[in-house]
Amino acid sequence: VQLQASGGGLVQAGGSLRLSCAASGRTFSGYTVGWFRQAPGKEREFIAAHAVQNNHAYYADSVKGRFTISRDNAKNTVNLQMNSLKPEDTAVYYCGAGRPIISAVSSASMYGYWGQGTQVTVSS
To answer: At a CB cut-off of 8 Å and minimum separation 6, what does 74 contact?
Structure first.
């Protein structure tokens, strides 16, 4: 599966962005898709995942209530709607696809396929 992340950019605090992760080569339908982010000097951090096993969404506490992950199987994309953005949301955002068990959806090591990342910058 080849993944392409897009939609990043520069936005003011309180604004919104919509990231998209498009798959090619294979359908997303059999994979859990997760969004992670990595700020300079920090480890890759789990943000959200849509689990294929139960069709549920999972979120990090830091984004719960502000971010929404959604899957569009017809378009073979997974989107991340980000609202009420904060300067601390600034990072490179990556989408990953894999088949982690539910208890491991937040573990980056469980995702075998990754997109190239898209930069999100939130100014104060």
So the answer is: none
CB 93 within 8 A of CB 63: no
Distance CA 103, CA 95 (A): 18
Q: Please give the pLDDT value at position 26.
A: 79
Query: 42: which DSSP letter?
Result: S
Where does 13-83 show beta strands of DSSP type E? 17-24, 32-38, 45-50, 57-59, 67-72, 77-82
Cα Rg of the chain (Å, integer): 13
Identity of the residue numbered 123: S
**Segments of the chain with pLDDT less than 70:** none
What is the rounded distance in angstroms from the CA atom of residue 52 to the CA atom of residue 63? 21
Q: What is the pLDDT of residues 26-41, one digit of tens each?
A: 788 889 999 999 999 9
